[in-house]
Amino acid sequence: MSLWIMVVLTSLGSYGLKLAGVSLPQSVLNHPRVQRTAYLLPPAMLTALIVTGLFDANGHYGVDWPVLAGVGAGAIAMRFKASLVTVFIVAIVTCAVLQLIV
Amino acid sequence: MSETTRFPPRDRDARVTDTDFPERAAITRAAVGIGVYAGAFGVTFGAIAIASGLTVLQALLMSVVAYTGASQFAFVGVVAAGGSPLAGLSAALLLGTRNMFYGVPVTQVVQPRGLQRLWTAHFVIDETTAMAVAQRDSRAGRYAFWATGVSLYSLWTIGTLAGALIGSGINTAAFGLSAAAPAIFLALLWPQLSRDGAATVAIVAALVTLVLIPLTPPGVPILAAAVVAVVVGATPAKSHATRKES
Prior knowledge:
The structure holds 2 protein chains of 2 kinds. Chain A is 81% helix and 4% strand. Chain A has a two-stranded antiparallel ribbon. The termini of chain A are far apart. The longest helix of chain A has 24 residues, at 32-55. Chain A is mainly alpha-helical. In chain A, a hairpin with a 2-residue loop joins strand 1 and strand 2 (60-61). By secondary structure, chain B is an all-alpha fold. Chain B contains 12 helices and no strands. Chain B is globular. The interface between A and B is large, with 75 and 103 residues.
């Protein structure tokens, strides 16, 4: 039940933020510090999501090697300017193949 | 209707009738392309959502109403890692704040008035904003916004449903999908690192997250990374004098 509530709140909250963006006076959103915080939030949080995805094993340090290798392979593809879909496919195929072998 | 005639090409009717600008075909192709990749990510989101313990209906509801990929992946990522749904909600909404700021450029291009804001808002995401502001004039910008928004939304939603149904039937962990979410986050993060201060914030956020993993409940390390961004963002920008160049 709690999951349902959070799914609904996340959904409505996400829409609410968008609605606020097209409704609030632009002077509020154009404040330099507000803007800078907004631009820095995604890189900070995406980094945190990557770190926990790779090194968090239920509250302990732990690495799932096929996953790490898959993401690493995706990162290499990205270095070679692969498209988002290519990066994604490289990552999951590498991970799946290693899971079969290991 | 009077306000729509004062500035002719700006409402939905104008969007339908303005078929004569040269970029139209190119914009349409780009919008369809973005929609196809969104469909592929939608399938992934649906499958991961199911693997994280959401029902098909919950996954679909998120794509239909929340309609913001990174936040949705963050929510199911936190829940999958054993974090409380409340931590998932906080992470998703903090990531979603960027959509609020996209409202500034989108409003300037699309110029929604009154109730139009209600449905314009729903389509404000990374891709639609980027497409809208990339066009030469606001007529092309409006078309780019709506074409991308509608294409992406339909395929993202259909993809989510397909992924959720597939994910309910098979063990998605066996298909390398555990690597999908971090890889998507990395692909989203990569272009953002060139923003001034972003790389530094990302490194500090990574260290803070890493230290907190064994010390705090799941989800908290991700929220701590948000605190890093807020602290740096709210600090007067004396070391960020080069910001205007980017």
